[in-house]
Every structure is written in structure tokens, then in C-alpha cells.
Specification:
Elements: E1 3-4, H1 16-28, H2 39-58, E2 67-70, H3 73-84, E3 90-93, H4 99-112, E4 115-118, H5 129-135, E5 140-146, H6 158-167, E6 171-175, E7 194-198, E8 210-214, H7 252-268, H8 270-288, E9 294-296, E10 308-313, H9 318-329, E11 331-332, E12 334-336, H10 341-347, E13 354-358, H11 365-377
Parallel strand pairs: 1-11, 3-4, 3-5, 5-6, 6-7
Antiparallel strand pairs: 2-8, 7-8, 9-10, 10-13, 12-13
Helix pairs in contact: 1-7, 2-7, 3-4, 8-11
Bound molecules: pyridoxal-5'-phosphate.
């Protein structure tokens, strides 16, 4: 099986019941949702509805019809940004965004002449909420922040930023790709208007699942129009949620897997998952110091980061090191820019990238021990 330490890209393994539920659905049901009225189609509708409810509840959100399913958080972020931002709007964002946000904003800058303010952060990725407040202008429509960086792991003060957004009547969109399932997130307490999640990372669901929770009254334009299963004689997209924003056949098999994943998380409890990941992260930060010639980026404190640690080893290219870890030791981690060039600009590694450990719920301390030993061995 090897040692999988790339959970920041996607989590592995998944709970057994996630895979089993997808298999069972495909073998025993396999019908579309929102289309038919026969019993199996109704069961499919129920699975989708229950998943909306479970996802919402995970983030203390009580309106399942405003839990919109997408294929991943990239689509959710595109949906929110493209569906809200209009000509000449101003947007405030962090210095650490993934390309899922950044490329979308840069494209809208070209297409709709939006203006973007990148809030400064320290080299460790800490943002001062007062700098967010200072960035707000008369024409600011929205603030978009990741909850945690996928390069440095740094957790952002979303509650404080959300409060600033609320006080200034600005929408607050949060990318919880790296935290959902392993951190308590509460759309009300954290003042989140729009929460974009992906199903396949710490939510432990299958790839091809994600969504957008709409905790506000803003009327979002759809990304796509087409069949929604109802109102078929009407020539335009329906104007009610979720149909307005969910076009085409849903990924019901994936959603069924996500449903099982959330049931697993609820059974284990977010607190248990969080504590285990935090303990492993603290252990990794401590043990990695035993690696010769290592430079670790970001906060060296497990309270301030998710289970994501980026580092380099002097005189070894990150790509070469991860290749050797894989081929000789069967240890899997990722090298490169991790789709977040802005974060690398911040730490001065835009040219060389970094190696990255992504810790997951199913990792153990021995995985870190073996990695540390291998990182020393490959240096001779
Ligand atoms: C912070 C962040 N945002 C967005 C994404 C994109 O996720 P997905 O590929 O599931 O859309 C990732 C995943 O790498 C991420 O870490």
C-alpha cells in the first residue's frame, strides 16, 4: 500500500463504507435524481436530499435547498465568483489563494474589469484582519479567503474577517477545501455568506463531489443553463434553488459516497478527527527538524496550521526527492507549486516550488518516522 502523505491533494484511503455505498448504489439503484417518479428514482432523490441536509448540518446550516452540488470546490468558487461579480466590482482576497480563486479573479479582471486587492500577509501566511478592513472600498462587492492555505497550512481568521464583511455590507466567500471535515466551521458563528467545499479531501468522500452553501439572499447567476428535471416547458432556467444552479444530471453515485463519508465523520466526530490530525501535525513539525539541511515553511506551530507542511532540502530538487521517496521507499508526497503560486511568491519559492506533506486521518506517527528516515537516507 505504501505511505500516502498527499491528503492535501485528495484523501486516501476513504472509509470502506464510502466505496461500498457507491458500489451498492450503482448495482442496486443507478437511477437519476430529480427526474423520475418510480420507486428507485424516489430513493435516489432521498439520497441526494439527505446528503444536502447532512452537509448543511456539518456547517450549522439548516436550509438543504441552498446546498448546491458541484463537481468540486473549483466549480463552487467559479459559480460564486462568476455568479456574483459584475462589471467594475472590487474584490478583496488573501495573498495565499489557490488558483481555483486566483485564476477566476484574474479572468474576471480581463472580462469584467473587476479590481482586486490582495491583502498582505506575513511570510508564515498570517493575515491581520485590520488589513482586510483597510482594503474595503465603496465598490467592494465581496471578500474571498481560503480557510487554510494548501501550501503553508496557515489557518486564516475567518470569523473576524466575516465580521468585517458583515459590518461593511460586503459578501464573504470562504474556500474550506483544506478544513471541511477536520475543523468546526459554523456559517453563522463564522459570519460566512458563501461556503465552497470539496468532497474528496478531509470530507473523505469521492472525487467529483463538492458544493456551495448559500447563506445569504444574493441572487446568484447560474454558471450553466439546461435541464434541471422540472419545469421543462419553460424556456429559461428556473429561478429557485437548488435547480437554478444545478444543471444536468447530478453525480448521484458520488453524492451517495459523500453521504456515507459525512455519516462516518459524524460517527467519529470532528473533534476526534481534528485532535488526531493536530497531534500528527505537531509530531511531524517536531520530527522533521531531524532531517539534515531542511527548510520548513509556514508557522511551526500545530495550533496555527492544518496538516499541511511545505519544505525543501538544500541541494536537492523537490521533484527529484519525491521521485526517490516514491521509487525507493513507496512514500507518496507532492512537489511543485501546488496550484498556488501566490503562496510561493510569499515564501520565495516560486522558481523551485516545495515538497509538501498532507496529513490525513488515517496516517500514523510511524509514517512520519519512515519519511524522516528516508529524507535523511536520500542525502547519503
Ligand atoms: C485551498 C484549495 N482551494 C481549492 C482547491 C481545489 O480543489 P478541487 O480540485 O477539489 O476543486 C484546493 C485543492 O488543491 C485547495 O487546497
Amino acid at each position: 500500500m505504501g505511505i500516502y502523505l498527499d491528503n492535501a491533494a485528495t484523501s486516501y484511503p476513504k472509509p470502506q463504507q464510502v466505496a461500498k455505498s457507491i458500489y451498492d448504489f450503482m448495482i442496486k439503484n443507478g437511477s437519476s435524481s430529480g427526474r423520475g417518479s418510480y420507486q428507485r428514482a424516489m430513493q435516489s432523490d432521498f439520497f441526494v436530499y439527505e446528503t444536502r441536509k447532512l452537509v448543511g448540518e456539518l456547517f450549522n446550516f439548516k436550509d438543504p435547498k441552498k446546498v448546491i452540488f458541484t463537481s468540486n470546490v473549483t466549480e463552487s468558487l467559479n459559480l460564486a465568483l462568476r455568479g456574483i461579480l459584475k462589471e467594475n466590482d472590487h474584490v478583496v482576497t488573501s495573498s495565499l489563494e489557490h488558483n481555483a480563486v486566483w485564476r477566476c479573479l484574474k479572468t474576471l479582471e480581463k472580462e469584467k474589469n473587476i479590481t482586486i486587492t490582495k491583502v498582505p500577509s506575513t511570510k508564515e501566511g498570517y493575515t491581520n484582519p485590520m488589513d482586510v478592513a483597510k482594503s474595503i472600498k465603496k465598490d467592494t462587492k465581496l471578500i474571498v479567503f481560503n480557510h487554510a492555505s494548501n501550501v503553508l497550512g496557515t489557518i486564516q481568521p475567518i470569523k473576524e474577517i466575516g465580521k468585517i464583511a458583515k459590518d461593511n455590507d460586503v459578501l464573504f466567500l470562504v474556500d474550506v477545501a483544506q478544513t471541511a471535515g477536520a475543523y468546526n466551521i459554523d456559517v453563522k458563528e463564522d459570519n460566512i455568506d458563501l461556503l465552497a467545499f470539496t468532497g474528496h479531501k478531509s470530507l473523505l468522500g469521492p472525487m467529483g463531489t463538492g458544493g456551495l452553501i448559500i447563506n445569504c439572499d444574493y441572487d446568484i447567476n447560474p454558471l450553466k443553463v439546461g435541464g434541471t428535471g422540472g419545469d421543462s416547458a419553460y424556456e429559461y432556467q428556473p429561478d429557485y434553488y437548488p435547480n437554478k444552479l444545478e444543471t444536468g444530471t447530478l453525480n448521484v453515485s458520488g453524492i451517495v459516497g459523500l453521504r456515507e463519508a459525512i455519516k462516518f465523520i459524524n460517527k467519529e466526530s470532528i473533534a476526534k478527527i481534528h485532535n488526531k490530525e493536530k497531534e500528527l501535525t505537531a509530531y511531524a513539525l517536531y520530527k522533521l527538524k531531524e532531517v539534515k539541511n531542511i527548510e520548513i515553511y509556514g508557522p511551526q506551530n500545530s495550533e496555527d496550521i492544518v496538516g499541511v507542511i511545505s519544505f525543501n532540502i538544500k541541494n536537492i530538487r523537490a521533484e527529484d526527492a519525491v521521485h526517490e521517496l516514491d521509487s525507493k521507499y513507496n512514500i507518496m508526497l507532492r512537489a511543485g507549486l501546488h496550484c498556488a503560486p501566490n503562496a510561493h511568491e510569499l515564501i520565495g519559492t516560486k522558481e523551485i516550488g516545495s515538497m509538501r506533506i498532507g496529513i490525513g486521518y488515517f496516517n500514523e506517527k510511524e509514517d512520519i518516522d519512515k519519511l524522516v528516515q528516508a529524507l535523511n537516507e536520500i542525502q547519503g
